[in-house]
Write a structure and sequence with these properties.
There is one protein chain. Helix 2 runs antiparallel to helix 3. The radius of gyration is 19 Å and the shape is globular. The longest helix has 20 residues. The chain has one domain: 3-Layer(aba) Sandwich (Rossmann fold), CATH 3.40.50. About 35% of the residues lie in helices and about 25% in strands. Strands 5-4-3-6-7-8-9 form a 7-stranded mixed beta sheet. It has about 230 residues and is an alpha/beta fold. Bound molecules: S-adenosyl-L-homocysteine. The site of S-adenosyl-L-homocysteine has 25 residues, from strand 2, helix 5 and strand 4. The site of S-adenosyl-L-homocysteine (SAH) has 25 residues, from strand 2, helix 5 and strand 4.
């Protein structure tokens, strides 16, 4: 019995010292190298942002050890924080440049919004689930992302008071491109959204508006949580 207690104490000590030696910046370096760069993403501002944003702080403490792994994670209320590569893919398709006004629909954990802010974008983000909205706001404030604007609402309606936006990113899957979002996009402008005929899987659409012409490009298959709302499911 005594031996067991000692063993447990030792384990606690070992765990404690691990906490000190694992450097999140090094884990992020590895994540970017092995999951993002290796799959062909080259946008330097984006890679730098993903090396910088502390992704582990956007998930529950119990899941922090998995925060840099190659898969999505639950964030409560049936929602997920996207896999790092999917965040990178969507953001690179969005062609974000510093100073651009970007609208994100689906704040979720806040991670994607923080990546956009770290790239120098002027970020507006809308979430429909109150506890997620509140938690993300708190995180943005703690991490000094004071300039990220947040709203609790149905994001399929966009954010008319602050429109237009040069870029719009929808991080939940809907049946089609919500009309209000197209109306709130600048010309030229880019909108990225997962769209699917069923709720189970979607194709990632890059919608480009240029000189009044709308061009839709399919960028591959993805699986997102539902976009719920007037112009969603
Ligand atoms: N970008 C998020 C991913 C969140 S998952 C991140 O980095 O963590 C998608 C989010 O979209 C969920 O939080 C869900 O509640 C939200 N969502 C779904 N439909 C929405 C709508 N109509 N308006 C705003 N948010 C919506």
């Amino acid at each position: 019995m005594v031996v067991m207690i000692n063993a447990c104490q030792n384990l606690e000590q070992i765990k404690g010292s691990f906490k000190l030696v694992i450097d999140p910046r090094r884990i992020r370096e590895k994540m970017v190298m092995h999951q993002i760069e290796s799959r062909g993403i080259t946008d330097n501002d984006l890679l730098r942002a993903m090396r910088t944003v502390p992704r582990h702080l956007f998930v529950d403490e119990a899941l922090q050890s998995q925060a840099y792994e190659d898969h999505p994670l639950p964030i409560g209320h049936g929602q997920t924080i996207s896999q790092p590569y999917i965040v990178a893919l969507m953001t690179s398709i969005l062609e974000v440049r510093p100073g651009m006004k970007v609208l994100e629909i689906g704040t979720g954990s806040g991670y994607q919004g923080a990546v956009l802010a770290e790239m120098g974008a002027d970020v507006y983000t809308v979430e429909r689930i109150k506890p997620l909205y509140q938690k993300a706001r708190r995180l943005f404030s703690e991490m000094k992302y004071h300039y990220i604007k947040t709203k609790l609402d149905d994001g399929t309606m966009g954010w008319p008071e602050n429109a237009p936006f040069e870029r719009i990113l929808v991080t939940a899957g809907g049946p089609d491109v919500p009309e209000p979002l197209m109306e709130q996009l600048t010309d030229p402008g880019i909108l990225v959204i997962p769209v699917g005929e069923t709720r189970r899987s979607q194709v990632l659409l890059k919608v480009t508006l240029e000189q009044g012409n709308i061009n839709k490009e399919r960028m591959g298959s993805v699986a997102f949580v539902d976009l719920v709302g007037k112009f969603g499911w």
